[in-house]
Amino acid sequence: MPTGALRQLMQRKAAQLNLPLGALTNKSPYHSGKDQEDTEAMALFRAGAQIILGRGDRALFWHDCWLPGGLSVPEAAPALASFARLSSITVGQALANNRWVRDIRGGLSAPALAQYLRLWDMVAATSLAPGQQDAVIWCL
Q1: Domain containing residue 62
Q2: Which of 13, 65, 67, 139 is least surrounded by CB atoms within 10 angstroms?
Q3: Which residue pairs, CB below 8 angstroms and at least 24 apart, start in 71-77?
Q4: Count of H-run helices and E-run strands, the chain
């Protein structure tokens, strides 16, 4: 069970979950960006939380940790992410007609192409649950 400051951080971040899950990333307009504390807080939050997809209408495709293993797309495919316009589309929007592919720009390098193919397989294997909201569970 988390103690002290970590428990307070988790409670504070959990209270923010009425915002889109992407509000918890430093790419979000809700992120203050004022100091290192926000970045460290987000790293702790991501280490202790896992996103469980429901409808895919709250988790952000490019920013949130929704992939298997609790990874974000930039963590799973950093070379590919360097070619992507990291938009704020949700996972549900991105999966519809493979819209996420439209965010990729330029000629891909060999590593980015390999990561694209792996990500394609992960996305193709993703199933949404239309009757359920996206959720965050604590892993600590």
Answers
A1: 4-138
A2: 139
A3: 73/119, 76/115, 76/118, 76/119, 76/122, 77/112, 77/115, 77/116, 77/118, 77/119
A4: 6, 2
CA dihedral 40, 41, 44, 47 (to 10 degrees): -100
**pTM of the complete model:** 0.71
Residue 29 has pLDDT above 70, yes or no: no
Q: Say whether pLDDT at 16 is over 70.
A: no
> Considering its fold, how many domains does the chain have in total?
1
State the sign of the Cα–Cα–Cα–Cα dihedral 127, 129, 133, 139. negative
Interatomic CA distance for residues 2 and 60, integer angstroms: 26
